[in-house]
Amino acid sequence: MIIAVDGPAASGKGTIARALARHFGLPHLDTGLLYRATALNLLEMGGDPDSEFAAARAAHIEQIDADDPELRSEAVGGVASRISAYPLVRAALLERQTRFAAQPGGAVLDGRDIGTVIAPQAEAKLFVTARPEVRASRRLAELRRAGRNVHLAEVLADIRARDARDTGRGAAPLRQAEDAILLDTSDMDVEQAIAAAIAAVEARL
Ligand code: C5P
């Protein structure tokens, strides 16, 4: 069974995907990390984020350390969002994702284009979203916990900019697959969102 979880930044899709993987005993891939690792690699190589070729070269990554806090930084996220619009970057990261999805026992993948491009054959597709203001205040709480002194307006502007880039790009834009179940978590807490996601996947089995 493949479970595809897509949605915009800070929608809760990562938390939901991890919980689904645990619940159904499946391996999980956070595909955003591939774009973030590419961005970090590019920055470390001193490459130019405006160059599609430089970004595509940076996409050839052997190992990703998911625990590296640098990968989660806003700076890396911003560059990841820009370079993910390049078709050459997406092509370089494609096989790794389709291979993960094709594991015999199944898998959970979360990102922006899992249900539409990476695994259109997925048995269960969720499109997780929440109002931009709600996503911004969740992200703000996360950043403040990490000791960052940022303001809601700043975070909200960043989320809106990222939404516009992710949905407006030509290559694999963020959109809900036709057969995806919409899960709006705006008025749910984490437990409610996880329970709703599990119920939605079970209904597809
Ligand atoms: O989900 P996360 O914020 O970690 O992703 C970082 C960036 O990578 C996103 O802003 C998005 O532009 C890009 N991305 C993508 N396709 C995916 C996953 C992430 O374009 N499947």
TrEMBL record:
Its main location: cytoplasm. ATP binds at residues 7-15. Transmembrane segments: none annotated. Residues 3-201 form the Cytidylate kinase domain. Its EC number is 2.7.4.25. It is an enzyme of class 2 (transferase). This is Cytidylate kinase. It comes from Allosphingosinicella ginsenosidimutans.
